[in-house]
Amino acid sequence: MVFSEFQGERVPRIGEIIEEFRGRLKLFLDVNSGSLKVLVRIIRETEIFEDVFVWLASSWKERRFRQLSPGVAMKRNIGGIEQLRTAKQPASTRVIEVPIHALTEELIALAHPRAYGSWPCAAETQGNKRGNGSFRATSTTTKDSIR
To answer: How far apart are the first and last CA of the chain?
Structure first.
């Protein structure tokens, strides 16, 4: 989807977004690339520990991030209630992303006592090139936008 009214606009740096919206919203960082050390430094310097949750594109990056910043909330993708029951979720997991077809009252009842918020995704209706069943509102970033 292309929003022509924003064409040519500079993507804001993460520090600018934090300052603009500090205390007014939870910030979801969908991290596909970039320096984990820089990301951890930004989170520490801006003191947004309670206002951010992070998802990383690879399991090794997720493990490394948890080592660098163990208290920061993480988002995990799960396919349904059986995965929630059987998979060991790291203590830092605070949000789970669930396909809409798998979001049931039973799943919600199991997730909430574990301190998970649930984030239904509209994968089946949106369709995406990766075919992984997720729909997110994110922006394209450049290396400079994380500084």
So the answer is: 26
**Mapping DSSP to helix (H, G, I), strand (E, B) and coil, where does residue 78 land?**
coil
- What distance in Å separates the CA atoms of residue 15 and residue 145, rounded to the nearest whole number? 9
Neighbours of 38 (CB within 10 A): 13
Write the pLDDT tens digit of every residue in 102-143: 888 888 888 877 766 655 554 433 344 443 333 333 322 223
| Residue in this structure with the two tokens 């320096």, named with its chain if needed | 35
Tell me how far CA of residue 89 lies from CA of 19, 71, 95, 96, 132, in angstroms: 31, 14, 11, 10, 20
The predicted model scores a pTM of 0.64
State the DSSP code for 144.
Answer: G
H helices of 69-147, in order, are 81-86, 105-111, 123-126
